[in-house]
Design a protein that fits this description.
- The protein has a 4-stranded mixed sheet.
- The longest helix is centred in the middle third of the chain and has 69 residues.
- It is built from 8 helices and 6 strands, in the order βββαββααβααααα.
- The protein is α+β, with helices and mostly antiparallel strands and 290 residues long.
- It folds into 3 domains: 107 residues, Ribosomal Protein S5, domain 2 (2-Layer Sandwich); 38 residues; 135 residues, no CATH class.
Length: 290
């Protein structure tokens, strides 16, 4: 089963007088690209959090946001004033530059939504709190993976449809193939007739055989069918198959291109274009497959 690289997972962990919310979202990326937004009390845990994330999540641009909110009116968190002023000046400057109309209330509202505006009055967290947070982070990762799997099911349906259409168009190419040989032969005979010169029939047949062999695409058809079958087998048997499927799609494209270059028939060329269109749709979706 394939998985999408796009997903979201969230968990909430209430510890003593503070509630921690862990939000993890991912989009497509060639590597594991991790960005963390943490309260000050967790700044020294960045490497540990990275290790936890890497255990559960493969490729993707991963945004991890952890916020700490005081419970029951507790004053365990406070505004980080240097950070607040930094955000205020940046937003104010950007608003002036773009001629946007923002009141102080609007700016304050934006700043208070930023996770690093608030900091815990505790400079660090104790081991028990960290163990509970570790479990919450793992839970958010698992939910994200479940979300990725659900999106992967939709991608799989689309891939199967596209591959089946390519196979269908290839079937139609085979129906046109026999007529194609006759059309090529008739066209050459008509051209020879216009020369009004005698020619050796035996030599003509030899040249025709050589010429038609150059335009034969039996091998390309066989390989194209095998690549399509291999594509579907890979979907069925492998999880993190995005890169492998990309390689297979390149081979499918190579056979389609060669088939098109040998076609020498307008109707077959139309089918080749339709196959290329389906393959491009596959490639677009493969950019988001784990």
């Amino acid at each position: 089963m394939i998985q999408s690289m796009t997903g979201f997972g969230s968990s909430v962990c209430a510890i003593d007088d503070c509630t921690y919310t862990i939000d993890i979202k991912s989009i497509n990326s060639k590597t594991l690209d991790l960005v963390q937004k943490l309260p000050s009390a967790l700044k020294n845990k960045e490497n540990s959090i990275r290790t936890i994330i890497a255990q559960y999540l493969d490729r993707g641009k991963i945004d991890v946001t952890i916020t700490a909110e005081a419970a029951n009116g507790s004053d365990s968190t406070s505004i980080d004033e240097p950070t607040f002023h930094k955000h205020y000046n940046e937003i104010k400057a950007l608003a002036d530059k773009t001629n946007a109309t923002l009141s102080d209330a609007d700016i304050f509202n934006l700043i208070f939504k930023m996770p690093d505006t608030f900091c815990s009055k505790k400079e660090t967290i104790d081991e028990e709190t960290w163990q509970q947070l570790t479990q919450a982070i793992a839970g958010a990762c698992q939910l994200l993976n479940e979300n990725r799997a659900e999106e992967g099911k939709e991608l799989e349906k689309d891939f199967r449809l596209r591959i089946s259409l390519i196979s269908k168009y290839l079937d139609e190419v085979e129906l046109l193939e026999n007529n194609r040989v006759d059309l090529i032969r008739n066209r050459i005979e008509k051209q020879l007739a216009t020369l009004e010169q005698p020619y050796d029939n035996n030599r003509f047949e030899q040249e025709m055989i050589y010429y038609l062999e150059k335009f034969d695409f039996t091998e390309e058809k066989v390989r194209l069918r095998k690549h399509c079958s291999y594509f579907l087998d890979t979907i069925n048997t492998e999880d993190a198959a995005g890169k492998k499927l990309s390689f297979i799609s390149q081979e499918i494209g190579r056979e389609i291109n060669t088939l098109g270059s040998k076609a020498s028939d307008a109707d077959i060329q139309k089918l080749v274009v339709m196959m290329k269109d389906e393959l491009e749709k596959i490639k677009e979706q493969l950019a988001n497959v784990l």
